[in-house]
Amino acid sequence: MKILLVCLGNICRSPLAEGILRKKLEQSGIIVEVDSAxxxxxxxxxxxxxxxxxxxxINGIDISGQRSRQILSSDLKxxxxxxxxxxxxxxxxxxxxxxxxxxxxxxxxLNYVYPNENxxxxxxxxxxxxxxxxxLLEMAAQKIVEEIRNNL
Length: 152
What we know:
By secondary structure, this protein is an alpha/beta fold. The chain has one domain (2-150): Rossmann fold (3-Layer(aba) Sandwich), CATH 3.40.50.2300. It is 43% helix and 12% strand. It has helices at 13-28, 50-58, 73-78, 87-96, 124-127, 130-150; strands at residues 2-7, 33-38, 81-84, 106-108. A four-stranded parallel β-sheet has the order 2-1-3-4, with helices on both faces. It is globular and about 40 Å long. The N and C termini lie close together (11 Å).
């Protein structure tokens, strides 16, 4: 299984989500490939935001080696599950799906915690709320791991 986490710039939310989910999967002994990307290419090649690196580190996760990349239309075929951080990211990903082949694998990440509410993970780039974002993503990652474990 391959999971892609997607936000706008791939420097705050999605790299943090990648690190959290990867750690939870490893702790559970579940082998899943996890990656992240942004809907924009503004930060391509850059490391995660210092705030994301810091909150991850405080929680025992090293994301400093990650580098931003833009989502590609080929990612829609390659990944089994594509998780967007907010509705804008979700719509941007859906626009890459020209023939509507992959809509069943594109989801909002917080729907794992708050089913069908379509809540957004707030962007800490603008609000400096990295602790809140970490907590939301940690809850979502736990639910994702539970769902994967239940489907093994």
